[in-house]
Amino acid sequence: MRKPSTLFKTGLTAGLLAALPVQAETYFEASGKVAAELRGFTQDAQFSGQDHDSNLSFYVEPEFFWEWNDGDDSLTFTPYLRVDENDSERTHADIRELSWVHVGEDWELRTGIRKVFWGVTEFQHLVDVINQTDGVDDFDGEDKLGQPMVNLSLVRDWGIVDLFLLPGFRERTFTGTEGRLRGGLVVDTDSAEYESSAEEKHLDTAIRWSHTLGDFDLGAYWFHGTNRDPELSVRTQSGNTVLVPRYVQMDQLGFDLQATLDSWLWKVETIWRDTEKEEYFAAQAGFEYTFYGIQDSNADLGVLLEYGWDERGEDASSNVQNDLFFGGRITLNDASSTELLAGIGHDLDFDGQSLIVEASRRYGDNWKVSIDGRFFSADDPRDLASALDKDDHLQFTIERYF
Amino acid sequence: MNLLINPLKSVLIAALVSAPMVALAETPEEKGMAISVESKKRDLGWQDMQAEMNMVLRNKQGQESIREIRMKSLEINGDGDKSLSVFDKPRDVKGTAFLSFSHPVGADDQWLYLPALKRVKRIASRNKSGPFMGSEFAYEDLSSFEVEKYTYKYLRDDACEGGTCFVVEQYPVDKNSGYTRRLVWLDQSEYRIWKIDFFDRKNSPLKTLTYHDYQQYLGKHWRSDLMKMVNHQTGKSTDLSWKSYQFKTGLSDKDFNKNSLKRAR
């Protein structure tokens, strides 16, 4: 992990010292989870180096929490470690959170390494821009690396305004040579390049407004700084052909809206991104409808439909450019929180498909078991998803919470 | 009528004397409504409240499962209450928090905070009849009592654990309720609920909720320490016990927004 800038460290230290508990009324709590994850692939690998059909992985994520000043100050520390059987890049550690939060009358100051989520849609998180994707953890982009930040949040009658200073950029993690679920060429993360001469020390900024108006929850933001999505270019280095990531500067405007109307959730996310060589719009929109108490049972069935679009069309560097998503979620609402989720993605340009099925339930008070199946069919080599064509797999995860 | 006791009786006698037509004209519907209005009125002015909930879920075989939830509520004059709940157990949902702005009529506004994703999600509140955390309590059983949520019919007086009770039938106004009616026992001295029989959408007996160990707070507000729900159709049950009740701790609107939801833990 790269170090946060000195400025940032000094700020955090000073802030913490100022806020450190003077009285003994500090509350402490430790919790967390450990997990084992087994993947079984149904086909032989597509690329050389990936010579395994099953993979075992372990991860641990403890959380330490201190609170003082009657809850007006708190400190959270969440380290993360994964050990992987085959992929040395997937064996990695991160600080998911190390942050101090101070709560004022109508404001909050959050300082440190944190995670921030923006957005409303389920199949793609277009407007979610603050944290870098932890690409080795899973291929779905849902796992994020901790981002150093100073975040002032102001609560007003007309909404919540969040101001961000983001010192210290995090580079995306990529699957290594031995790992499956990657492209044909391995990304050489040690050779990362930047447009800005400040490189990973560029101070990024963001401002976001969010508000609830009746049935509508909406948000809008401006982000100025290093694009979290790298451009990947083919390069030959000491006889090996690799991909080299390059991180450019961008300005991005984003907007998200959810209308919650009876059993309907209507969702829209859209961004406008401006970089040195292109500017474009992209959007993800759709709905979620829930049938409650199906067949006179306690179970609910949610039906989801979303469409993802990118102005750049087939040239888009993103996986989603003209894609339709359909999903179903069954929640049994039983004592063990049994859930079944299935999602199908269909690429209308390249005619590729992906199917993801997830089932989970709790055993006893502290165990959770999930079985995930991920299946890909992408034959068009221009389709970025074609790299995953031979990586169909079943994943069995057992988590122990403490 | 002759079973009615002190305060109400004297009021009724006074009413009979001064305006006999009005009193005689009180229909079972009006009386049922009046009892509920009085019950709500007697608990007004609690301002804000904090408490810890512990649920023990039991299936037919007697297997138990625990839920631990901390809760804060804010009384809103002229509207439903605001509440913020944080889950401590089971551990896989630890830190999950739930913010609700309830309304006497129409849909409540509800948000869920998912700590693993750091995501706040506005959720549809139509699901009033669904089970809360897999328990025998439905969401609607745990939401704040508002007079406008039901129409009423007084049935009879009946002996109950709290002395003599009014038995009032309540018919949910919301078409999404899981019940056709509730039969409620309220004691005549303090207007506390002692028992509720729930009837499902087919009007069959579904559940019975009993209230135990009432404590009075600030010399006014009665709260039951233990609520037992039994499902007659499935044989499952849930015991909901409350502890660490605190009133008027100075909570305000700022403790019930998306920022407070995110740091609720």
TrEMBL record, chain A:
It comes from the Bacteria. Keywords: Signal. Residues 1-24 form the signal peptide. This is Porin. It comes from Pontibacterium sinense.
TrEMBL record, chain B:
Residues 80-263 form the Uncharacterized protein TP-0789 domain. It comes from the Bacteria. The keyword Signal applies. The keyword Signal applies. Pfam families: LolA_like (PF17131). Residues 1-25 form the signal peptide. Keywords: Lipoprotein, Signal. This is Outer membrane lipoprotein-sorting protein.
